[in-house]
């Protein structure tokens, strides 16, 4: 296990993180110069050990790597800001290295602290079987197909679990991650922490708010999923966004752009016919990476369209060209991406870090409900969610079920979301917390502070430093 050293959080600190009772004495951390290349100046590293299974605090431990950039104005230091990385499986230390220049203003008043969550330890030690897909995902047409898909995934999960030497397979849910975060807080010696969460990091952020509301000074959410209301609800929010805003923007762009392969036609009607025809008669394709396969309407709806037009609208130009070819029987423009994702999202490596957070379908009836509701919200892109299909065969109890988040005792949160991608998710989270505000970034993208967007970073800095929120309805123009 990388960076393994002596246990730094034991006894009362572990009990505090498990039960929510404050530790009488915070355990210290031994900071040292960070190893490796491209390390920001002044960055220090440490290691903390936490229980593999938080119900057994005296049992086996897992070592987590931490890093910090001490406040550059120590006389005016407020405290620490802990980053909660996304993924799941992203390394917080890498994210801090990437964002260090954009967080310089925040770093004047705060120690910027990052950590690599337990799921990154698991990913660094994956057995080969965990990278083997249980199947190639598809949207089942009936109960028999659904049960066959679930059985195939359950077999893949069990094989991965049996081969896993870390013991983490059954303990990567966000409640366990949140307890790790509380152990970090105790080890830092902070009464309360401020947080910056992004993307999937919203799930452990919600778990931490559920378990330790009194330990939160401030919480900044950037493009975060709101698992507390259920994954289907988040999918429907996303589908409404793409159906009402993003896809019409594409079709309008195509209508005014001669270089678009569908220029002069109703691009939306062409796409809708293509996906419906592919449902009836899948398009045979051969991928250089993944061999022969078929593209159904589900594959196209799930993996065909890219919301971000890309530099010079390059991604939308490629999409229109792929649609034009596919309606003539040539699905090569979609083959690698669609077949690749159908396999990747059927591997335990991609799914085991989040299935315990209630990401899958609980039954065939729930699958049917999700598919029907998704199609009703978005005729162009509504489909059974690929990640939920992958988790359908999860062999363990759901450790962190979706359920309402008690807001009592929580300070107002600040959220930022892009109008093209994740505003709906983030705003659904912040509106649960009285007094909170979500800033809309008017454009594409995901996770603004990691993208170096100045307006969202400015609002985040003001909030975290002064606990001052922008007015409701604040919008950042696209940069």
Automatic annotation (TrEMBL):
<dbReference type="InterPro" id="IPR029058">
    <property type="entry name" value="AB_hydrolase_fold"/>
</dbReference>
<feature type="domain" description="Peptidase S33 tripeptidyl aminopeptidase-like C-terminal">
    <location>
        <begin position="382"/>
        <end position="476"/>
    </location>
</feature>
<dbReference type="InterPro" id="IPR013595">
    <property type="entry name" value="Pept_S33_TAP-like_C"/>
</dbReference>
<protein>
    <submittedName>
        <fullName>Alpha/beta fold hydrolase</fullName>
    </submittedName>
</protein>
<keyword id="KW-0732">Signal</keyword>
<feature type="domain" description="AB hydrolase-1">
    <location>
        <begin position="81"/>
        <end position="272"/>
    </location>
</feature>
<dbReference type="Pfam" id="PF08386">
    <property type="entry name" value="Abhydrolase_4"/>
</dbReference>
<dbReference type="GO" id="GO:0016787">
    <property type="term" value="F:hydrolase activity"/>
</dbReference>
<dbReference type="Pfam" id="PF00561">
    <property type="entry name" value="Abhydrolase_1"/>
</dbReference>
<feature type="signal peptide">
    <location>
        <begin position="1"/>
        <end position="26"/>
    </location>
</feature>
<dbReference type="InterPro" id="IPR000073">
    <property type="entry name" value="AB_hydrolase_1"/>
</dbReference>
<keyword id="KW-0378">Hydrolase</keyword>
């Amino acid at each position: 296990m990388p960076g393994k050293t002596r246990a730094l959080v034991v006894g009362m600190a572990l009990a505090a993180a498990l039960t929510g009772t404050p530790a009488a004495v915070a355990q210290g951390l031994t900071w040292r110069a960070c190893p490796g290349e491209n390390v920001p100046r002044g960055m220090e590293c440490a290691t903390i050990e936490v229980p593999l299974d938080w119900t057994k605090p005296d049992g086996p431990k897992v070592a987590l790597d931490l890093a910090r950039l001490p406040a550059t104005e120590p006389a005016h230091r407020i405290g620490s800001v802990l980053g909660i990385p996304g993924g799941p499986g992203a390394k917080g230390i890498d994210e801090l290295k990437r964002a260090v220049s954009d967080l310089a203003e925040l770093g004047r008043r705060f120690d910027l602290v990052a950590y690599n969550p337990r799921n990154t330890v698991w990913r660094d030690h994956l057995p080969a079987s965990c990278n083997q897909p249980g199947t190639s995902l598809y949207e089942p047409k009936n109960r028999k197909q659904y049960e066959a898909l679930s059985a195939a995934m359950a077999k893949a999960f069990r094989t991965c679990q049996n081969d896993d030497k870390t013991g983490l397979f059954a303990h990567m849910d966000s409640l366990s991650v949140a307890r790790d975060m509380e152990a970090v807080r105790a080890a830092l010696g902070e009464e309360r922490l401020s947080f910056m969460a992004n993307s999937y990091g919203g799930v452990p952020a919600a778990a931490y708010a559920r378990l330790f509301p009194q330990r939160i000074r401030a919480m900044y959410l950037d493009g975060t999923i709101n698992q507390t209301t259920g994954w289907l609800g988040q999918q429907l929010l996303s589908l409404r966004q793409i159906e009402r805003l993003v896809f019409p923007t594409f079709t309008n762009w195509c209508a005014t752009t001669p270089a678009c392969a569908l220029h002069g036609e109703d691009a939306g009607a062409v796409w809708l016919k293509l996906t419906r025809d592919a449902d009836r008669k899948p398009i045979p394709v051969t991928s250089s990476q993944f061999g022969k396969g078929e593209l159904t309407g589900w594959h196209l709806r799930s993996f065909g369209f890219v919301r971000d037009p890309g530099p010079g609208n390059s991604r939308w130009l490629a999409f229109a060209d792929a649609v034009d070819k596919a309606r003539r029987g040539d699905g090569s423009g979609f083959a690698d991406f669609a077949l690749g994702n159908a396999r990747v999202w059927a591997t335990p490596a991609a799914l085991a870090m989040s299935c315990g957070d209630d990401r899958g379908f609980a039954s065939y009836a729930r699958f049917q409900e999700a598919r029907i509701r998704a199609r009703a919200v978005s005729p162009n892109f509504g489909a059974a969610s690929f990640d939920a299909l992958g988790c359908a065969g999860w062999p363990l109890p759901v450790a962190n079920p979706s359920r309402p988040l008690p807001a009592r005792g929580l300070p107002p949160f600040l959220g930022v979301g892009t109008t093209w991608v994740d505003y709906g998710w983030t705003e659904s989270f912040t509106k649960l917390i009285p007094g909170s505000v979500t800033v809309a970034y008017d454009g594409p993208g995901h996770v603004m502070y990691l993208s170096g967007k100045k307006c969202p970073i400015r609002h985040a800095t003001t909030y975290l430093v002064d606990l001052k929120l922008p007015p409701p309805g604040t919008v950042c123009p696209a940069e």
